[in-house]
Specification:
Blueprint: H1 2-52, E1 55-56, E2 64-65, H2 69-76, H3 78-112, H4 116-130, H5 133-143, H6 149-156, H7 171-196, H8 200-208, H9 213-224, H10 226-241, H11 245-250, H12 262-271, H13 276-303
Antiparallel strand pairs: 1-2
Helix pairs in contact: 1-13, 3-7, 3-10, 4-7, 7-10, 10-13, 12-13
Length: about 300
């Protein structure tokens, strides 16, 4: 019976296998446009950039193969080391700040303001997300100017004027704060959705056992939101390492290179010095750095 049943089952499965084989070319036709777009827009630029990273190329002639010269140069370049430090400092300030604030605000709005006021608050906090980075940087450059509105308001309280964007000790902190202000609304929506998925019975049972608001957040909300936090931290880190628009519009890399991040340094090398090969090598190193950091963060947060 077993052998007969197996033969019968195989006979019945044969038409299904033939039907799947006939449908396979149709499926390939449907995914071919998307595959072509990805190949042209993503895969080919990565391959081309990697190749140019091993050449001397200035757009005014054919690339000349130089091997590891660009990599050796960037390791020894003090501007690269400074840009790495600035990028890391900017990331260390902006990512934890926007993550913590977004989580706390989402918890408050989800558990205490499930009404029209909470909806308005979420909408208001999401407005900066919809604004372009160029517009955001331009507006904040005006607000933070030496004689701008921020210093005027602080002057009413006796705070002396500060050149927020012209002081090398403040400029990175200020750009990081502006970044957090812009991103909080986006990450708040992600956290809010995660908190709303938590069954209300869990909080009610914990509250009946005497747990206060802090214990509810620390013992229930925070552990449940670990996958969301993983996403938020990885996205925030990737965006921070790629920061360019705010630097370009707010400080143009100044003062004296104090806000020149890695991406802005790549821009200078490529479009101001026309050292496309060197800029490509920097881009490949940046890509690998982001990849490694994302993997490390993912493992650390999952094991934590």
């Amino acid at each position: 019976m077993s052998a007969a049943g197996g033969r019968a089952g195989g006979a019945l499965d044969a038409p299904h296998r033939r039907a799947r084989r006939r449908r396979a070319p149709v499926g390939l036709v449907f995914i071919l446009p998307s595959a072509l777009v990805i190949a042209v827009v993503v895969v080919w630029p990565i391959i081309a950039t990697t190749y140019l990273g091993f050449t001397d190329y200035s757009m005014f002639g054919a690339p000349e193969w130089t091997g590891l010269d660009n990599l050796t140069r960037l390791v020894q370049d003090p501007d690269v080391r400074r840009a790495v430090w600035i990028t890391v400092l900017y990331t260390v300030i902006s990512v934890p700040l926007q993550t913590v604030l977004a989580m706390l605000l989402a918890d408050i709005l989800a558990r205490r303001f499930r009404n029209r006021l909470g909806s308005w608050a979420r909408s208001i906090l999401f407005i900066p997300v919809m604004a372009s980075l160029v517009l955001t940087g331009t507006v904040w450059r005006y607000l933070l100017a030496y004689d701008g509105p921020v210093n005027q308001v602080l002057g009413w309280f006796g705070v002396p004027q500060t050149d927020w964007l012209g002081d090398s000790s403040w400029v990175v902190v200020v750009i990081a704060l502006v970044t957090a202000w812009k991103n909080i609304g986006y990450f708040l929506v992600i956290y809010y959705a995660g908190i709303m998925d938590v069954p209300g019975d869990v909080y009610e049972a914990a509250a009946l056992d005497g747990a206060g608001p802090w214990h509810l957040f620390w013992r229930i909300t925070l552990p449940i939101l670990r996958p969301v936090t993983l996403l938020v931290v990885i996205l925030g880190t990737i965006w921070s390492f790629q920061v360019f628009d705010l630097v370009y519009t707010m400080t143009n890399g100044g003062p004296g290179g104090a806000s020149t991040t890695l991406v802005y340094l790549i821009y200078q090398a490529a479009f101001k010095s026309f050292k496309m090969g060197y800029a490509s090598a920097l881009s490949v190193v940046l890509f690998l750095a982001i990849l490694v950091i994302s993997i490390v963060q993912r493992r650390a947060l999952r094991e934590g």
